[in-house]
Amino acid sequence: MIKLGVNTVLYKDYSLRETVENLKKIGYDGFEISAIAGMCEHLNLDDWKNQVNEIKEICDEFQMPILATEVATTDPDRLRLAFEAAAGIGIPVVNIGPGGKADVEEDLVNAIKHINMLAEMAESYGVTLCVKAHVGASVYNTPTTLRMMEAIKNPFFGVDMDPSHIFRAGEEPEEAIAAVLPAVKHVHIRDCVGRQQSPGLPMQQICGVGDINLRGYFEALVAGGYDGPVNLEVIGPSLSLADANIVAASSYGYMHACLKALSAR
């Protein structure tokens, strides 16, 4: 069964306990704990050992496992902390972007070498490193994702297939997913209106309200046998708790209905 979760960056102004309690009430299976420096650090990598007990207590209290963490950096020192924390807390996946600039060959070559090194580091901790195509970065579409996949064969490396970035790269995610699915080990998801660089305001990122064929994307995921986590990742300005819950609940209703119809829930 595909597990649905939410990146806690959506609730960046609220405590982890309050966030997880609300996600549990909405119906999510688990959550992705944000460790994004300067944006949302529900997991503070510099002090993670002092958070372990509290985090595990919250997970146990609400029966909500951590499906992944997002670190959003390629800095090896920061990621070593992330892998160490993930191993210590029991987080299976660490998500990052690729770095570099789009359509700069040197950046792509260097990014792939660097990610390969990071994957070896992740392996030493028994944690999976996932990297997604990101608008404006060296890996930003299907062809560059395939270049990365072909070069990195480490079993602790995977692709984080985010349809909003692929859509904004000018592709149709429901068609693009088949080529990269063999390496997909995590999915970040949100909707967006238009193909501009920004995904828009949080309310425009609610699954089902934008221009991406997310129903078709889920159909392709299920048909391809994907059974990993799907974490809603909505970014933007701070929201009231009520509005954050609207984003999470509306997206859950859409995703759950799609997957239920596909016998994947």
Structure class: alpha/beta
- Major sheet size, sense and barrel closure: 8 strands, parallel, barrel
Helix segment tally: 9
CATH class: Alpha Beta
The amount of beta strand, in percent, is 15-25%
Strand order of the largest sheet: 1-2-4-5-6-7-8-9
Run of helices and strands: EHEEHEHEHEHEHHEHEH
C-alpha end-to-end distance: 6 Å
Low-confidence regions: none
CATH superfamily: Divalent-metal-dependent TIM barrel enzymes
Strand tally is 9
| Anisotropy-based shape | globular
Question: What is the residue-mean pLDDT, rounded to a whole number?
Answer: 97
Query: How many separate domains make up the residues?
Result: 1
CATH topology category name = TIM Barrel
Based on CA atoms alone, the radius of gyration comes out at 17 Å
- Indicate the multimeric state: single chain
Describe the structure.
The model has no long low-confidence stretch (mean pLDDT 97). By secondary structure, the protein is of the alpha/beta class. The protein is globular. The chain is 42% helix and 15% strand. The protein starts with a strand and ends with a helix. It has an eight-stranded parallel barrel, surrounded by four helices. It has helices at 16-26, 52-62, 76-89, 105-125, 142-151, 163-168, 173-180, 214-223, 241-261, and strands at residues 3-7, 30-36, 40-41, 66-70, 93-96, 128-131, 157-160, 184-189, 229-232. The chain has one domain (3-261): Divalent-metal-dependent TIM barrel enzymes (TIM Barrel), CATH 3.20.20.150.
